[in-house]
Amino acid sequence: MSKPFVAILMGSDSDLPVMEAAFGVLEKFDIPFEVKVTSAHRTPEATHSYVTDADKRGCAAFICAAGMAAHLAGAVSATTLKPVIGVPINGSLDGLDALLSTVQMPGGIPVATVAIGKAGAKNAAYLAAQIIGSSDAEMHQKLVDERRANAEAIIAKDAQLQKDLQQRNAK
Amino acid sequence: MSKPFVAILMGSDSDLPVMEAAFGVLEKFDIPFEVKVTSAHRTPEATHSYVTDADKRGCAAFICAAGMAAHLAGAVSATTLKPVIGVPINGSLDGLDALLSTVQMPGGIPVATVAIGKAGAKNAAYLAAQIIGSSDAEMHQKLVDERRANAEAIIAKDAQLQKDLQQRNAK
Amino acid sequence: MSKPFVAILMGSDSDLPVMEAAFGVLEKFDIPFEVKVTSAHRTPEATHSYVTDADKRGCAAFICAAGMAAHLAGAVSATTLKPVIGVPINGSLDGLDALLSTVQMPGGIPVATVAIGKAGAKNAAYLAAQIIGSSDAEMHQKLVDERRANAEAIIAKDAQLQKDLQQRNAK
Amino acid sequence: MSKPFVAILMGSDSDLPVMEAAFGVLEKFDIPFEVKVTSAHRTPEATHSYVTDADKRGCAAFICAAGMAAHLAGAVSATTLKPVIGVPINGSLDGLDALLSTVQMPGGIPVATVAIGKAGAKNAAYLAAQIIGSSDAEMHQKLVDERRANAEAIIAKDAQLQKDLQQRNAK
Amino acid sequence: MSKPFVAILMGSDSDLPVMEAAFGVLEKFDIPFEVKVTSAHRTPEATHSYVTDADKRGCAAFICAAGMAAHLAGAVSATTLKPVIGVPINGSLDGLDALLSTVQMPGGIPVATVAIGKAGAKNAAYLAAQIIGSSDAEMHQKLVDERRANAEAIIAKDAQLQKDLQQRNAK
Amino acid sequence: MSKPFVAILMGSDSDLPVMEAAFGVLEKFDIPFEVKVTSAHRTPEATHSYVTDADKRGCAAFICAAGMAAHLAGAVSATTLKPVIGVPINGSLDGLDALLSTVQMPGGIPVATVAIGKAGAKNAAYLAAQIIGSSDAEMHQKLVDERRANAEAIIAKDAQLQKDLQQRNAK
Amino acid sequence: MSKPFVAILMGSDSDLPVMEAAFGVLEKFDIPFEVKVTSAHRTPEATHSYVTDADKRGCAAFICAAGMAAHLAGAVSATTLKPVIGVPINGSLDGLDALLSTVQMPGGIPVATVAIGKAGAKNAAYLAAQIIGSSDAEMHQKLVDERRANAEAIIAKDAQLQKDLQQRNAK
Amino acid sequence: MSKPFVAILMGSDSDLPVMEAAFGVLEKFDIPFEVKVTSAHRTPEATHSYVTDADKRGCAAFICAAGMAAHLAGAVSATTLKPVIGVPINGSLDGLDALLSTVQMPGGIPVATVAIGKAGAKNAAYLAAQIIGSSDAEMHQKLVDERRANAEAIIAKDAQLQKDLQQRNAK
Predict the structure, then answer these.
(1) Contact call for E and C: 3+ CB–CB distances under 8 Å
(2) pTM of the model
(3) How far apart are the first and last CA of chain A?
(4) Residue A42 annotated as part of some ligand binding site
């Protein structure tokens, strides 16, 4: 069986700078991914064709980013039974509109919603990696290792802070 | 040419009690209408087929009611170039989620959004009547007459209130 | 009969940069339009005179833009039985005040509300075109064609993105 | 000169139960008042006529109650230069829509906004009494006396509570 | 009797740039005013002394500006029976915290709340002028005249816009 | 390898009536599940032990339900690298506090958030099934079949509605 | 030195049913407390006298409960340098107004704010106990013991749930 | 007994510029403090170890700053029975997410929440000083003195303003 991949869909190419945070995480875990600019409203047929095709080709999870009345993740979730992750983009109202449009889905058509903006873009990628890792022990181990490295980075930042504070107090 | 009609779509049959307020207004203006329970997410193909067909059969305007992450009006607007009116239903968060999911549409795919709940259901029907009336002088005149009657009803309520207050003061 | 036109009303000339997005859309569809700076509160009589006159001269739809306690669209809807489209302008509170003041109209006086700001300005014009198109087959066809062109533009953006990503990966 | 009076306007007779809290306060201060059911949107001309007439007859302040996209106070403030007090009514969204539609008025057309619902209805009457009292020493004294009585009522409630708590502890 | 004056209180001198919009309006109507930086929380006694004294010296209305948990207007209203006008300042949360802290007063202690920020500062001054004008025919006439001038200014802006649009179309 | 199971954690046994909606969905798909009442704050060690143990025993996904400052899902996500699904419970503020506390997670610790309350409880179960189905073709097929059945149920409801409306019109 | 006590202030006796949750917690820890109905706005002098006196008599912490534009905690914090704990009461807008009016205090006048309503009333008492416990080892130990007991109660509830579920499955 | 100290924890070193406002206040009162960058989610064990250790070493109060789904203060409060003060940081949604995640704690695990951002950082330090001062008469006196100095600073600002206004009027 071919390696599973992640499909990242964006309602507009203006979402690209936010979603690049997801690319970096997926690359870190060596997860192949595709990126597609397609709109639930303006290119519904292209969206439908792409999702149906990606689903058949072994897509493990879809990541969908959209702002305002963010319907893209919901529309994709209506098309596939693979897990769909929604990233609300801050286009107006601080992203509250996109958050509610993404998360408040009716029973039967779930969207796994993450935080608004860049933090959400990152976590969408982590979540996709966890979904792949739930049946792939090697991927799961990579996640365990990466989290430990992350913790160590914070501990290092704290160690640096302690030094800075000591110097400040020494003056 | 056959008489234009209005199509009323609801995401769930639980929206029926709210939307009956629209039926009454349309009946008052002798506007034929169809009612359809269909979901943007759970029956996307049935929704698409119905809208495409209704559009061809002379539907003048679509009224779409949905709650939570209310995508129905947006999905219908993506399918037709007829005017689409969205009624946000209060399913949670006092209907704020449905309002934002309905009104915050991206450029090119408009939804004419009205108030949350029953007031919105009524106004969706009035708006549909105004759209038909914009090219149908007889319908327009009906709207003018009905508004005058409405104003008179409020003036009558005020007259009754003045009597009630006088009686109260006379005591 | 003379060609129907659209009237665009603004509560303040500071709304002009936002509303120019509507001018562009109407020009694309060759829909004649008038622009008027007039206030529901500061020039109520001028507003009333203009709307009554425009209504008689064949105005097909009114587009009203206002911020804060945005009453302009409601006041116009109280004066005419033509469809009235409301564009909430972000003057404070991210435009939430203008949105609620525009959309939450009582039964009988509808305002077809669109998104806050520029996306709403565009969609107000699209909606006006759809209203005209509901009884004008030629206009309706223009809308169908323009939407197809829009879809193609997104598909072209996606094609460009695929190229960019391939180059990036090739490095 | 005839005694100044207060005019209370309501967008709907369903607001009457809330606004009766204002009647009680005005009666306590022997301030004559008129009550009018009239709508900014459904009976704009009747509203305009009434306000213009009341203004000439010596109305000292207007109290306007409305829910949802509450435009009544704003429309009255656009018609008169007497102080206009707005009471937001909770018709939906916990009254947040009515609050923002009432308070966020543009420069030049002020509305003196008070709390949502019954507390606001009371305070509208107190504020009207204060406005009359600002040039009427007798009224001002009544307000001073009434506030002292109110304070004593709270102190009495506290004294009762202390007794209740002592009894509870004695058990 | 000496001429009535308006007292403007600010919780912090950082509110000065916003409140200068009120100074201009009061100067236009030749209304004398005092300006005081004083805090409900940090200088409660100075606030109390000033308000009690200003009240006795003939202050017609108090204007109180504060941000965040804006208690200044409420504290002043608890000290005087003169009308108290509250201006919510945007210090955080777009000023929603200041708005709710100012407007949601309990029965018996009213605060006449106006819009958040500069529009509110202006309207606080207009409202104070209306309160003075409610028993001062000359002031009332000034308000009537100024409003007419304001309306003419908007009509002039519209006339200029019509010229601009014609030139644009002529090209 | 033993069959993967789902662990459902609740911050309080008062969340049980909402979460039973998830049990039904999991039973429909024959997915084994465990239910645990445990609190991020009141029993952090019990929570940690249970999650670590369940993770080792082959738990495929964790579903965490909590209200107010809903930290349970976040705390679980900090303990395991398996996918964690968060269900915000409406305990106050219509559940907005629980939604934001669940979804706004920092980068690296994702929570797959679903809708507030019962719809979210259902979708948490669907999402867990999709995660299992992403590497289990049989489960995936069950999801495909169940969605088709769901669509047919809506189409049947619509058919019934058409009959009801015909009867109503026939009268 | 006499035993430190806690003073509980309420803006209205209608807050009593919510605040009784605090009484229970304080009684569990044998912390003496006083209860006072007093208003920041309606009885500012009585509030000031009571707080000054209680402060001198050895009050360790003040708990202040109020709804709407909840200024009581802020006013008390302006009067004393003892810790002041604020409990927002849900009187309108789901308590969001009381929360923001309580928590958003300017620098120098802190209010230790807890959750809206009953959970907040309980936590105000726990927090007061922790403040006393910060210099009273016996009290601190009581808190440690009580928390352990609380954890055991949750573990017992979970054990009961496991039994219930087994019985259900056995059927 | 050694002098009690305050522990300041931050979820991220990006919170440092905001929290430096707390350092200044603590230094003014000669209160020793420690600063720690540690995360509830990314370094839960380091957080737990540090808090347990600081608690034993005589920490009088914990100040915890975090943004978004701000769980740090809650996690610390679950670990210690010392008072825990939460500072919501504005990372998104104007800090409303962090405020609700911090303040809406369930009964038994209190977090003393202060304002969003810099004002909150300051007040966290004042509150910690008040907690120490509740059993340390010298510290309490420092707080009394500092508040008087603060009041005098505001009075001096007002005196300066009066001079500025006189000069302006003299022109």
Answers:
(1) yes
(2) 0.97
(3) 64
(4) yes
